[in-house]
């Protein structure tokens, strides 16, 4: 494998989910992802043609390709009085299985007229969901939880940003940050992890739930670039230090995947491949990424887990 020729492989059945998968749907897209009792679980965002409010449904699969979407939504707008007015657009969930507590934590952005906050919720059985708390001030997007404590603390990655565009400082306002918490509610010790650094991600970058490897925390990211024809969303990877995840120790530098297929261009938001997570099949040395395509459907991309880690280490940290 040469330095810059690694690409994730699209599944031939793509898009594996989309409006065709659910009656009345206008879009089935950006999904959290995990394993539960031997099945692949996707928490998919759904837009219905006759309902302006998105919701999230559970999709499950025995083989990781053919999914059944449960007809009843799993997450809708929160009913908690201190949260409901902040929860006007429930999409883009990030799912983390926390083995120590045998619980699946779900972090997601909460769009509202006062800005985008971050929500935390949980489930143990994918039948019952519980909202917990607002865990970040606006404006904040794409919150992601680590799957275990590091040095006795819960850790979170996210992307705080300013609503005021500053062309002289924009990359600094659209990068990935790390924070820690003793209880998942109170967060502090905020640290900058990585800023946008190159052409395919110069507008902004965002994280997904980290995957633990022997060499470090593998972090699948999205990167956005801007041109006269609009924005383009691509997928890349970085590697964080196991004991101090504020340190980037590896970086794919180039993207692992950019929009190329028709279904990644033709949709509600063209020119988008957008990950909300990844699943590591350690025994098979494989990484599965279920990604949003054009905010309309879901594709599956796969790659060799160890090769992605090796690529990050060989390329080194971003400048």
Question: In terms of per-residue confidence, which ranges show pLDDT below 50 for 5 or more consecutive residues?
Answer: none
Cα-based radius of gyration, to the nearest Å: 18 Å
Count of extended strands = 22
Helix coverage percent: under 10%
What would you call the shape? globular
Number of domains: 1
Describe it for me?
This protein is mainly beta and 319 residues long. The protein has a single domain (9-315), classed as Tachylectin-2, Chain A. It has three helices and 22 strands. The strands form five sheets. Strands 1, 19, 20, 21 and 22 form a five-stranded antiparallel beta sheet that branches. Strands 14, 15, 16, 17 and 18 form a five-stranded antiparallel beta sheet that branches. The chain is globular, with a radius of gyration of 18 Å. 47% of the residues are buried.
Features:
5-stranded antiparallel sheet, 319 residues
In short:
The protein has 319 residues and is mainly beta. 6% of the residues lie in helices and 45% in strands. It has a single domain, classed as Tachylectin-2, Chain A.
Topology:
Blueprint: E1 9-10, E2 25-36, E3 39-48, E4 51-61, E5 68-69, E6 94-98, E7 103-110, E8 117-123, E9 130-136, E10 140-145, E11 154-160, H1 170-173, E12 176-181, E13 188-194, E14 204-206, E15 211-212, E16 217-227, E17 230-240, E18 248-251, H2 262-265, E19 273-275, E20 279-281, E21 286-293, E22 297-304, H3 305-315
Antiparallel strand pairs: 1-22, 2-3, 3-4, 4-5, 6-7, 7-8, 8-9, 10-11, 11-12, 12-13, 14-16, 15-16, 16-17, 17-18, 19-21, 20-21, 21-22
């Amino acid at each position: 494998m040469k330095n810059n020729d690694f690409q994730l492989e699209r599944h031939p059945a793509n898009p594996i989910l989309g409006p065709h998968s659910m009656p009345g749907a206008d879009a089935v897209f950006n999904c959290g992802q995990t394993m539960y009792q031997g099945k692949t679980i996707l928490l998919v965002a759904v837009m219905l043609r006759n309902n302006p409010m998105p919701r999230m449904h559970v999709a499950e699969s025995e083989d990781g390709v053919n999914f059944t979407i449960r007809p009843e939504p799993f997450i809708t707008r929160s009913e908690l009085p201190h949260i409901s007015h902040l929860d006007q657009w429930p999409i883009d969930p990030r799912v983390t299985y926390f083995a120590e507590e045998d619980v699946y934590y779900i972090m997601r952005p909460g769009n509202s007229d006062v800005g985008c906050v971050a929500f935390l919720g949980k489930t143990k059985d994918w039948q019952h969901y519980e909202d917990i708390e607002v865990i970040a001030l606006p404006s904040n997007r794409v919150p992601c939880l680590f799957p275990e404590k590091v040095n006795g603390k819960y850790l979170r990655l996210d992307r705080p940003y300013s609503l005021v565009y500053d062309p002289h400082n924009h990359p600094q306002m659209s990068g990935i940050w790390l924070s820690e918490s003793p209880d998942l509610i109170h967060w502090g010790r905020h640290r900058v992890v990585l800023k946008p650094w190159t052409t395919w991600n110069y507008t902004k970058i965002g994280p997904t739930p980290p995957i633990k490897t022997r060499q470090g925390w593998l972090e699948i990211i999205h990167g956005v670039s801007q041109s006269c024809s609009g924005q383009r969303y691509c997928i890349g990877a970085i590697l964080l230090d196991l004991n101090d995840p504020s340190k980037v120790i590896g970086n794919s530098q180039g993207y692992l995947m950019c929009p190329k297929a028709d279904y990644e261009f033709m949709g509600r938001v063209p020119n988008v491949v957008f990950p909300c997570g990844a699943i590591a099949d350690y025994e098979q040395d494989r990484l599965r990424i279920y990604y949003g395509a054009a905010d309309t459907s879901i594709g599956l991309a796969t790659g060799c887990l160890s090769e992605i880690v090796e690529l990050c280490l060989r390329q080194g940290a971003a400048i």
